[in-house]
Backbone:
């Protein structure tokens, strides 16, 4: 697994520090920081572990952070750790951690959303999807429309869709009347667009905010 850096971003090290090396996990309330380190050290070099505790009682909330030295190590931990940990990339420290923790916890407690907050990966079911879902009536194309009730940040949306190979451009727009998010995404091949729609339609980004992804007409013969 590789995490793509936005072409428009600034310092690579700043980006790693803020967004790509710290993961957020759900853990048993009995875990100590040493237990957390022991479970996740197999995926890479850990800079630190911390457990989120109730400020009044000092008891664990059953949530924690693991900070790795490299983005590739954090990505490996997310992909390979037990799904019960619900591992995702943590919000940067300069954002509200309490609201992030609340959204994360509430989303993972709702059974119908489980899996949506996990970064997508190449899964076995895609093999069956490729044969069956490409025969649906909806015309496919290399261009996608992405809609959200929250406005998009260009760099973040680009980084998300750039995880699927072949991204050509990401054009983010904002409706001044509703403040909702709208973007046009284009890939070099229809296959990439199909896979991106399959994985990201309904995906929660950020947690609690579902993306709606549909095909846009790109002027080509969709039967190809």
Residues:
């Amino acid at each position: 697994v590789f995490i793509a850096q936005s072409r428009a971003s600034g310092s690579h090290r700043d980006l790693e520090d803020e967004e790509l090396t710290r993961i957020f996990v759900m853990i048993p309330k009995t875990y100590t920081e040493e237990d957390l380190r022991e479970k996740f050290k197999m995926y890479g070099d850990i800079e630190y572990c911390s457990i989120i505790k109730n400020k009044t009682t000092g008891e664990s909330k059953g949530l924690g952070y693991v900070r790795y030295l490299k983005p590739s190590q954090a990505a490996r931990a997310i992909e390979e750790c037990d799904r019960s940990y619900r591992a995702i990339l943590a919000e940067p420290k300069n954002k509200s951690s309490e609201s992030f923790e609340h959204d994360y916890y509430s989303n993972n407690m709702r059974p119908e959303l489980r899996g949506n907050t996990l970064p997508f990966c190449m899964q076995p079911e895609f093999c069956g999807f490729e044969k069956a879902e490409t025969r649906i009536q909806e015309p496919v194309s290399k261009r996608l429309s992405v809609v959200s009730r929250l406005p998009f940040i260009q760099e973040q949306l680009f980084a998300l869709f750039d995880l699927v190979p072949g991204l050509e451009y990401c054009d983010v727009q904002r409706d001044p009347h509703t403040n909702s998010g709208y973007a046009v995404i284009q890939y070099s091949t229809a296959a990439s667009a199909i896979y991106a729609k399959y994985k990201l339609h309904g995906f929660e980004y950020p947690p609690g905010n579902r993306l709606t992804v549909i095909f846009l007409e790109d002027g080509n013969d969709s039967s190809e």
